[in-house]
Amino acid sequence: MTRPLIAVPARFSATTSALRYAAEVNARALIEAVWRAGGEPVSIHPADSSGSPDSSGSPDSSGSETAARLARFDGVLLPGGGDLAPRRYGAAHTHADVYDVDETQDAFDLEVARTALHSGSPLLAVCRGLQVVNVALGGTLEQDMGGPEREHRHVVHPVAIQRGTLLEQATGAQKVEASCYHHQRVDRVGVGLTVTARAADGTVEGLELPGVHGWFTAVQWHPEDTAHEDPAQQGLFDALVRAALVQARHGRH
């Protein structure tokens, strides 16, 4: 069986010793989770192309270079990474703890999110990826959740999942143990999105877009961290690849 192609936007890395210089990378655990699911993960170069959707979140990106690039693939995985520039969601000031902002990365990720949702390409968004989708659809972020007692860095905690959601179907559970690494979270939910999971402190841990004509779910945690030993977490990647197989059978866009 030919593996469906899963596009994974690369992340910029200032130093990568094995490659001697700055590099474009993706987490090995993330790539391996897609591979275990039967997909062919393909890192794609982040490029801020002309013709990107306007700041209102217009879904009309059919003429953009990014749309043409994604048309070669059967699914998309938006991975974790640094913080979005607060100006992307209308914030007047930047919190001191905002880090690793990259304007090219932001522009590309936002365009990827809008394009995938508009085209119906199967889309799984992880951590920063969830925040990107939320902002792409007009939502906002809390720039910093507070000190160690509030942030979700290097924390494994229970997450309650709403019944009847794609997230429940993918994980096969209504509660999962989630491996988190984030100091930001959703503030205002984007247009059309619904919350599918929350942590005990109320943090939004999952989002979906009812009525979208493709498979899409987003999680604030990092399922790849424990997917090798937790079927519920691996189930997210399995579900993405299953949806991508359907996409492949019907032909790429």
From TrEMBL:
One of its GO terms (cellular component) is cytosol. GO terms for molecular function: gamma-glutamyl-gamma-aminobutyrate hydrolase activity. Residues 42-66 are annotated as: Disordered. The keyword Lipoprotein does not apply. The lineage of its organism: Bacteria, Bacillati, Actinomycetota, Actinomycetes, Kitasatosporales. Gene3D superfamilies: 3.40.50.880. It comes from Streptomyces phyllanthi. The keyword 4Fe-4S does not apply. This is Gamma-glutamyl-gamma-aminobutyrate hydrolase family protein. Keywords: Hydrolase. GO terms for biological process: polyamine catabolic process. SUPFAM superfamilies: Class I glutamine amidotransferase-like. Residues 48-64 have a biased composition (Low complexity).
